[in-house]
Amino acid sequence: MTAMLQRNPIQFTVLLMGTLFFYNPLYGQCGAGYVEIDEECYWEKDIFFLQGFIDGSKDFLDIDMDDNEDGIISPLELGVQTWSGEGRLTSLFCS
User: Fold this and answer.
1) How many CB atoms lie within 10 A of CB 50?
2) What pLDDT score does 5 carry?
């Protein structure tokens, strides 16, 4: 990398800026094992768990949980949830 900087500083700068842009979490990039929903990163397996719970309980779910009124209860609309700053589901209350 040092040789590249010495030979062509402009090319090195463009490469560095591109890397910072595409791997910066501020630009919608979630890490491996995470999924982006509404510009937030959530642990994929937690979302799959919630979706599985919804799929197995469709006849019993209260449609009032459908916050955006699209007729579908999405994983983030199920019950009352608490998420950690790292995008992990820490509690779920469904009544």
Assistant:
1) 21
2) 46
Give the start-to-end residue ranges of the domains of the chain. Answer: 2-93
Q: How many residues does the chain have?
A: 95
> What is the Cα 19 distance to its own chain's centre?
21
pLDDT for the residue 59: 84
Rounded Cα–Cα distance for residues 84 and 58 (Å): 27
3-state secondary structure the chain: CHHHHHHCHHHHHHHHHHHHHHCCHHHCCCCCCEEEECCEEEEHHHHHHHHHHHHHCCCCCCHHHCCCCCCCCCHHHCCEEEECCCCCEEEEECC
pTM to 2 decimals?
0.67
